[in-house]
Each structure stands twice: as C-alpha cells, then as structure tokens.
Amino acid sequence: MKDHKILIAYFSHGGENLVDDEIIDIGPIGNTKKAAQELACQLEALGYKPNLFEIDALIPYPVSYDETNARARQEKEDGAMPLIKDGPNNYELYDTIFLGYPNWWGTAPAPVFSFLRDHQTKGKTLVPFVTHGGQMFMYSLDDIKSAAPEAEIKKGFAIAAAYLSAAPSVIKGWLESNKDYFE
Ligand SMILES: Cc1cc2nc3c(=O)[nH]c(=O)nc-3n(C[C@H](O)[C@H](O)[C@H](O)COP(=O)(O)O)c2cc1C
Hints:
Layout: E1 6-10, E2 16-19, E3 22-25, H1 31-45, E4 51-54, H2 65-78, E5 96-102, H3 110-118, E6 125-132, H4 140-147, E7 152-153, E8 158-160, H5 167-177, H6 179-182
Bound molecules: flavin mononucleotide.
Flavin mononucleotide binds near residues 13, 31, 69 and 133.
C-alpha cells in the first residue's frame, strides 16, 4: 500500500433538489456527501485513513431549490468566491485531495473555487469527483485545472443523482482502475 495522506474535501447541498423535473427535498445529507462517505469507507478498506472535510459557505445556501439555483447562477456569472469556513487542520500534511462537488450550472459550486483559492495545491494530487443531474463533470474539470494550475489532476468518478445507489460500485471500479496509484 502506498502511504498516501488522503483528504476528502467536498461541498454538498442537500435540501431541495430537482429530480426528474420535480423539486423534492432529499434531506440534509446531500448526494455528494453520501458519495464522499462511501469513498472514505472504501479507502479505509484498502488500509488508508482518509479524513473527510465539508466545504461550507459562511453564508449557507437556502434549503429552497429555486433560491439556491438563483444564487448559484449569479455566483457563476460573477465568478464569485464566497467566504468559506476555516479548515481542515493540518492541510499541508495531505498529498492527495479528493475534491467532491455537485455539478451546478455545468461546473463546480462557487465555494469549491473558494477552497482552491485558499488552499495551496502545488505538489498535491487533486482528484475531482462529481455528482450530477445528467451532465457529469461538464466544464468543472477545466475550471478546476485553471483554478489549481500547479496541482497534479487525476480525473475522479461521476455519479448520477438518479443512480446514487450505484455509488459503491462506481467508486469500487474507479479505485480498481487506479490501483497503480493506491496499491
Ligand atoms: C443549484 C443547482 C444547479 C444544478 N445544476 C446542474 C447542472 O447544470 N447539470 C447537472 O447535471 N446537474 C445539475 N444539478 C443537479 C445536481 O448536480 C445533483 O442533483 C447533485 O447530485 C446534487 O448533489 P448534492 O446533494 O451533494 O448537493 C443542479 C442542482 C442544483 C441544486
């Protein structure tokens, strides 16, 4: 086993979401958070001790889908990087950072870019992973590459919100196909 120090940093909204053209409340634990937790379990099974860190906007997003959608759209248009809560502790110790987020307006939510602004990624391996409503990573990988030009970027996995139950097998498959990195 390679002795990687792994951080799983993720942003996840939960609350109301658009599912099959209907607004439903998916509850406080969002899809990306569930995927992040599953990833942590599978990494633990490989012998790693990953730490989970939730990227939180200082001004939280509303539960309401419409209000969140309007704010997300505006932030994307403005290239906004809202203030986020501090952490994680001992960031400098990690060499591998999984970066999880939902696809919002074709890219990562603004707090993810705040995280990249606030945290040095030079010399680190950054593994973006996404949950989405059908558009997978869309522009997010290019946008993350621009925001973290000195990171080594390894493309992670994409999980469709409608097939969240497939997350364990998607993650397992991804870890297997990247076993050179983890074994
Ligand atoms: C504000 C907002 C914008 C979204 N925009 C997109 C989009 O452009 N493309 C897409 O495939 N899914 C989009 N979605 C769906 C989410 O990516 C998907 O439901 C995701 O799994 C939510 O993860 P979370 O519960 O961790 O926040 C959007 C959802 C929200 C709330």
